[in-house]
């Protein structure tokens, strides 16, 4: 694989080079949050050491530098997802805030009693609860695209669920609980054929393969910095310019206005209309550094590494006696969710922790898809660009230890 050497990559992530509980750390929880390369840590320190000031309003040199860094980060994000225009990039707190923003602005304006919001069975709570809240506020109805026993969307059901009352389709690009990659380009095509806008939750996608919002054709695309090797507290809502232009503001405050009197407020243009208050400046700067890091590695290389490692890990885990994979879609990315015999996932996770292996156990904020698979929780190992076959081998050895304990 040209230009991608996982052992070199690991050296960029200082946190990985440590022992925990007397063992070398094996970090397999990047779907929850990813580790940060030194380049991101350095960018944060440099910003605070050299450039920190508030943006947009200042006339002094530091404010100019901070504004340049913040707006430069917006351009870096635009390039990364191939948006047409920097005005289509709204900085938010993360995926969760991005989806709430769309639900409470686009949703409150365009979705009313009896209208339908279409999501899927495998959404993260971040792409369920804001829509349920909207339904409770407006009397709209939440409809759900089912998944089958592999954890793939039942595409045959989609056309009938896209009705003349459907006002938005909100779908995850990659399921954090199953790893399923949804065919979002095809879903967007079908929804657009009926004039229905599409929001894509890209939280688990942007870290694993190249994303091109123009190619996908979606109206909104949401993701979080912390899952893509950037800081926490920063994320992105991409929105097609014409959609954002037609949306009312989300929160009120500084920077989102053009003028204020006690009688009347004139709102700023997009994207500033949606960025009330002092934004997460260092977060944007750190996110831009993470993107430059990914671009230097090459997202195609990252995707190839992920594919290869997922195939290796799938085979390795299937060799563990009593292990049942939850989510066996033909197109998967980054996530291995499983049950081990009749051992509770929390016990699996606790015993692995003693071996220095970090995985996640629980419902992964995706209770409806757990209900579909009739499990309250799973064990989830998730992969990132710094994981190796040795990490997977350590996990397999750890799972054998778990089995020994419960024999
Ligand atoms: N959607 C998916 C698919 C996720 O995996 C997550 C995070 N687990 C979110 C949304 C929410 O992201 P955040 O907590 O960063 O807002």
Automatic annotation (TrEMBL):
GO MF entry, a single one: cysteine desulfurase activity
Function text: Catalyzes the removal of elemental sulfur and selenium atoms from L-cysteine, L-cystine, L-selenocysteine, and L-selenocystine to produce L-alanine.
Enzyme class: transferase
Gene name of this polypeptide: sufS
GO biological process: cysteine metabolic process
InterPro entries xrefs: Aminotrans_V_dom, Aminotrans_V_PyrdxlP_BS, Cys_dSase_SufS, Cysteine_dSase, PyrdxlP-dep_Trfase, PyrdxlP-dep_Trfase_major, PyrdxlP-dep_Trfase_small
Keywords associated with the record: Pyridoxal phosphate, Transferase
Family stated for the protein in its record: Belongs to the class-V pyridoxal-phosphate-dependent aminotransferase family. Csd subfamily.
Residue ranges constituting the Aminotransferase class V domain according to the UniProt record: 26-395
Organism the protein comes from: Myxococcus xanthus (strain DK1622)
EC id: 2.8.1.7
Protein name as it appears in the record: Cysteine desulfurase
TM segment ranges: none
Stretch forming the signal peptide: none
Catalytic activities: (sulfur carrier)-H + L-cysteine = (sulfur carrier)-SH + L-alanine
Cofactor(s) needed: pyridoxal 5'-phosphate
């Amino acid at each position: 694989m040209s230009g991608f050497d996982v052992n070199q990559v690991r050296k960029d992530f200082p946190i990985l080079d440590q022992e925990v509980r007397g063992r070398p750390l094996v970090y397999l929880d990047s779907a929850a949050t990813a580790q940060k390369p030194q380049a991101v840590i350095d960018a944060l320190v440099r910003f605070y050491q050299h450039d920190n000031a508030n943006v947009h309003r200042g006339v002094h040199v530091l404010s100019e530098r901070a504004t340049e860094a913040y707006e430069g980060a917006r351009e870096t994000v635009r390039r990364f997802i191939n948006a047409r225009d920097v005005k289509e990039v709204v900085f938010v707190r993360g995926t969760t805030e991005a989806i709430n923003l769309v639900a409470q602005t686009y949703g409150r304006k365009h979705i009313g009693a009896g209208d339908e919001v279409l999501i899927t069975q495998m959404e993260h709570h971040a792409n369920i609860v804001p829509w349920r809240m909207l339904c409770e506020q407006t009397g709209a109805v939440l409809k759900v695209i089912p998944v089958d026993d592999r954890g793939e969307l039942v595409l045959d059901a989609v056309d009938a669920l896209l009705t003349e009352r459907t006002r938005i389709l909100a779908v995850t690009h990659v399921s954090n609980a199953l790893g399923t990659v949804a065919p979002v380009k095809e879903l967007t095509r079908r929804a657009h054929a009926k004039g229905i806008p599409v929001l894509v939750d890209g939280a688990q996608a942007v870290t694993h393969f190249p994303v091109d919002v123009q190619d996908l054709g979606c109206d909104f695309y949401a993701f979080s910095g912390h899952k893509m090797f950037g800081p926490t507290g920063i994320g992105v809502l991409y929105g097609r310019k014409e959609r954002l232009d037609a949306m009312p503001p989300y929160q009120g405050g500084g920077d989102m206005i053009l003028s204020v009197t006690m009688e009347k407020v004139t709102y700023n243009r997009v994207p500033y209309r949606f960025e009330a208050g002092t934004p997460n400046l260092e977060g944007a700067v750190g996110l831009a550094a993470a993107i430059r890091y990914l671009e230097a590695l090459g997202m195609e290389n990252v995707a190839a590494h992920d594919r290869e490692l997922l195939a290796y890990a799938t085979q390795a885990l299937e060799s563990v006696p009593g292990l049942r994979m939850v989510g066996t879609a033909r197109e998967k990315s980054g996530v291995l969710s499983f049950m081990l015999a009749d051992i509770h996932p929390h016990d699996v996770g606790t015993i692995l922790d003693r071996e220095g292996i970090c995985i996640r156990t629980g419902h992964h904020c995706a209770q409806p898809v757990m209900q579909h698979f009739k499990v309250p929780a799973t064990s989830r190992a998730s992969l990132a660009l710094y994981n190796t076959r040795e990490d997977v081998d350590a996990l397999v050895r750890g799972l054998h230890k778990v089995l020994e304990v419960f024999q």
